[in-house]
Amino acid sequence: MSSILKSLGITFTISISIGALFYFSTGNFIGPFVISSVVQFILFFVWNSAMEIWRDHLRRQTDNEMYKQLSKMGLDVECNYCGELAFAPVDLSTENRYKCTKCNKDNRILIEVRTVQTTEIPESLDAQQALKNTANE
Length: 137
Ligand SMILES: [Zn+2]
Hints:
By secondary structure, the chain is an alpha+beta fold. Helix content is about 60%, strand content about 15%. The chain has helices spanning about 1-25, 30-70, 125-135, and strands at about 75-80, 85-90, 95-100, 105-110.
């Protein structure tokens, strides 16, 4: 809401300035004020439409890139029957299986999820100094 008011404020300020310029040179204020307001609204509309089209284009590009990356997701796996190595596609939303190219047997891929502790970079110099001291001990 405040951004709309801000836009309107800027539009009218520009229109008043243009109107004032015309008022001092030709004595006419209302005509230039109205024309300048209308022209600005049209320009804003064209600009917003163009930006929307551009954003849409970027969104589509990002989506395509994401799908491309997702299709590349997979794991190097070892056949549970013969030990043959293979690259199997992995989709986390379904059960993953693949057929071994060597022994032709069906393998199921189990994905194990683990958690690890995080390490944080100390921000203050004191903490970094303390870290250095501990490392030397
Ligand atoms: Zn196999």
